[in-house]
UniProtKB/TrEMBL annotation:
GO BP annotation list: carbohydrate transport
Source species of the chain: Acinetobacter amyesii
Listed GO CC annotations: membrane
PANTHER family, per the entry: PORIN B
Protein name: Carbohydrate porin
């Protein structure tokens, strides 16, 4: 399959706008940049067909430190195109939803090109850089059935593990604060979006505030490679090697701290790969037939102005990983977000996050002569419209790659997102 180029996006937008009522496109009060298609978009949604289209980009400039400060900035971007079909409305299938998503990532990484030394930075300053940069991908193709009276939901298809487990918001530029952290520090076994793999998830909603879920996902290293043209669209299982099994308890109290809502996730993961190419002791190199990990993810609103989500929010994420098979054996993340700075800017947000990633001390102290890497980010998300977000950011990385052989780094960033 030919590689998708985000450079063609203006042509896509121009073509789409030929079908959009001129008065609705770029409406600052509208939900989408391309408008409501003269009412057709709302009509289709009411009939059970919803569309998703956005492009996100992260620019990062290494102002000081690292390996190559002052070099030109890099940009990493992602195109997202998807649809959701409510089959209950479309075909009378009670509680059934079908989703399909493709993504295409392109660009470079300042962390890779300029910041890191002789070992890779553990995090990445640009969350939109990573798996899939070489090609487009099938990111999701799923069917979900809700048994409403029983409180059970079953989902199956091509899925990312972090879509349902260890879920976190992505309101920062660095991937140290973006999405499921298990996929960052044990990423050889846990593959987040944009990667998809064959899998399924069963969720039981015991009460309105308490749920439990378990998943089984194929482990196949080919899913994360995207080295060959079209690899991101491969559906075969030729090199499958065991499965990844996450379990999670999710508590979402509606009224906890100061009578405000929160989300508390407690989970564990077990993987059964046994090919030495995929699973081995990080010291001896001997084959292993399992690995495991665990997490606690917290999001809690602390104050409120009395209007929706406006107020101070906190978040935290803690992970633990198998010390036999994993380079990173634990991580911690803490942060604050304030949403709605003024009445005129009800959706704008200031965010501050601090992350620590600890390298397994079974590894060479000579190679990793600092015990941990620290990532700090301060940002401001400006939402002039519902369909446009602009986020300047400042990042500071201490001990990049968990070494002292490269200087601590200061980065200036600018992220953006447009919803079509």
């Amino acid at each position: 399959m030919k590689k998708y180029s985000l450079a063609l996006l203006p042509a896509f937008v121009a073509a789409a706008m030929t079908h959009v009522h001129a008065a609705e496109a770029f409406d600052t009060k509208g939900q989408y940049m391309l408008g409501d298609w003269d009412g057709k978009r709302t009509e289709l949604a009411q009939q059970g067909v919803k569309f998703e289209a956005n492009i996100a980009a992260d620019a990062a400039y290494l102002a000081d430190g690292g390996r190559n400060p002052g070099h030109s900035a890099t940009v990493a971007s992602q195109l997202w195109l998807g649809t959701q079909l409510d089959m209950e409305k479309l075909a009378g299938w009670d509680g059934v939803t079908v989703r399909a998503v493709m993504t295409a990532r392109q660009g470079q990484s300042t962390s890779v090109r300029d910041l890191q030394g002789d070992v890779p930075q553990l995090a990445n300053a640009q969350a939109n850089f990573g798996r899939g940069n070489q090609d487009s991908r099938l990111t999701e193709l799923s069917i979900e059935k809700n048994f409403k009276e029983q409180g059970i939901s079953v989902k199956a298809g091509r899925l990312g593990v972090g879509m349902d487990f260890n879920v976190m918001a992505c309101d920062f530029a660095s991937n140290a604060f973006c999405a499921a952290q298990m996929g960052k520090w044990q990423g050889s076994m846990w593959m987040n979006t944009p990667v998809s793999q064959w899998g399924g998830r069963v969720k039981y909603q015991a009460t309105p505030e308490l749920a439990a879920q378990v998943g089984v996902y194929e482990f196949n290293p080919d899913n994360g490679n995207a080295k060959a043209e079209g690899q991101g669209w491969s559906l075969d299982t030729d090199h499958a090697d065991g499965v990844t099994i996450p379990v999670e308890l999710v508590w979402t109290p509606k009224s906890l701290v100061n009578g405000l809502p929160g989300s508390y996730r407690f989970g564990a993961m077990y993987n059964t790969a046994d090919n030495v190419k995929n699973q081995k002791d990080i010291i001896s190199g001997e084959a292993e037939d399992r690995t495991f990990g665990g997490w606690v993810a917290i999001e809690q609103q602390l104050t409120s102005t009395g209007e929706g989500k406006r107020g101070l929010h906190s978040f935290a994420n803690f992970t633990w990983h198998d010390r036999v098979t994993t380079k990173v054996d634990n991580s911690q993340q803490l942060g604050l977000k304030y949403i709605g700075l003024t009445d005129r800017l009800p959706n704008d947000m200031v965010g501050l996050g601090v992350n620590r990633v600890h390298v397994n001390d079974r590894l060479s102290a000579e190679k990793f002569d600092a015990s941990a890497e620290y990532n700090v980010e301060l940002n401001y998300s400006h939402n002039p419209t519902k369909w446009l977000m602009i986020r300047p950011s400042l990042q500071y990385v201490i001990n990049p790659g968990s070494t002292n052989r490269v200087d601590d780094a200061f980065l200036i960033g600018l992220s953006s997102k447009v919803i079509f």
